[in-house]
Amino acid sequence: MASQDNKLRIPETLRKVKNIIGIFSAKGGVGKSAISLQTALALKDKGFKVGLVDADIYGPSQPVMLNAKPGDLKLTKEQIIEPLVKEDIKFISMGLISDEKMPVIWRGPMVSGAVMQLLSQTDWGNLDYLIVDTPPGTGDVQLTLLQRIPLTSSVIVTTPQEVSISDCKKGIEMINKLGLPISGLIENMSWFQPDKEGRKYYLFGKDGGKKLADEYSLDLLGQLPLIELEENKNLMENEVLKIEFSSIADKLEKSVKNLKEKKSDGIPQVNISK
After folding, report:
1. Which of 32, 95, 129, 191 could form a disulfide with 157 if both were Cys (CB 3.0 to 4.6 A apart)?
2. Is residue 35 predicted with pLDDT exceeding 70?
């Protein structure tokens, strides 16, 4: 099995970031971006300093969820991007740079370069966790992130559907071949429960993510229900999800600690602050 190069050149702006976590999904529409944000918020609520990179160049979602607009960004004297701070989280997104109504029509190498710029030319400062919301798929951008950024670990997001599980296997295989640890898997849209004490409806099948985690000997970090939002409220205010993501954050923190304790060959050590 291949492994990440422990001698990766670390961008200066990432040298005070202790842990970089990639959130991956091989299929779009599984809720990866919302999960990336909720995970970042849950870690922040536990007292950690957290950053969030929206690396989905073609379809950036974080500005919408965090109510941020293009043009809000500022540059330092050294022409380094100052990340926005929303919900006490530092974040950056292509959606803050480009016109929100215009599509990004770029080929793979340009997209990979843009992702690297977002990561390496943003003044992150001291962070305990930097969450990277990656674009869906197993293409150029994912390879760039896996090969050029010292990711501490990764999290896989899927739904119980067979089509999602099939694509997710490809993503897991890619990450395994490149030697990046996987902290676990999150199954989204696991069920719908109209009433708290009522019946659960498994609209997309039952336990597909759990079975996939078992197949690859991965930790199942959580199974998240479909939530009917109350009027004038967003996902960040939902108490059920807050509880679920608090548990996910605890499991992720434990996984990262275990990885660092092992200090095995091939496991990148990101905490390289001077």
Report:
1. 32
2. yes
Listed range (6-10, 57-61, 116-120) with the worst mean pLDDT: 6-10
What is the pairing mode between strands 81-82 and 74-75? antiparallel
Instruction: For 198-227, write each residue's pLDDT tens digit.
Output: 889 999 999 999 999 999 999 999 999 998
CATH of the domain at 196: 3.40.50.300
Domain count for the chain = 1
